[in-house]
# Entry
Amino acid sequence: MTQEPTPIAQPAGAPGPEPIRWFGTSWVDRGGDYRLRRVLVPIGALLAAAAASFVLRLAVDGIRVADNGGFLNGLLVAAVAICSLLAALRTWKLLAEGRENLTGWMAEDRSLGVVWVIGGVGALLAYFVRSLREAPGEAVQRARYEQALARYGRRQAGRSGRPGAGARARRRR
# Structure
């Protein structure tokens, strides 16, 4: 699956769409192998979530084998569940609204990095569910792209029909 170039021929200076991971710029006109990717990405996210949950299960079972007691085991399971929930909420908001709209604890990357790693299963499941609806992050990228095209259109409409006419008139003076 190669990244496709911008599918629509645009004049020089026109804004181009930003590629989305796994989709490239095929999300703009939903052409090419976009539909195939829309099927494969959720399957990949679900398989990755299954693998991550297997690894977490091995870690939790390793603590259980140590026979530290029911309270510690319950605390560990609760911590993994809470981290997964927080990571799922953050991933959903990130894909639905974009990174610039993350505020508070959701915007913390460094200080809560361990929470995001432990909650990786939740993040992958949120990615899976979001990818059933659209290419993850497509709504945010489409809104940005349409705003950029609208700004470009307004700039082009504001110019006179003769490019460079203003510069020639200034030189004559």
Notes: The two ends are 58 Å apart (CA to CA). The helical segments are 34-65, 70-97, 113-118, 120-133, 138-158, 165-172.
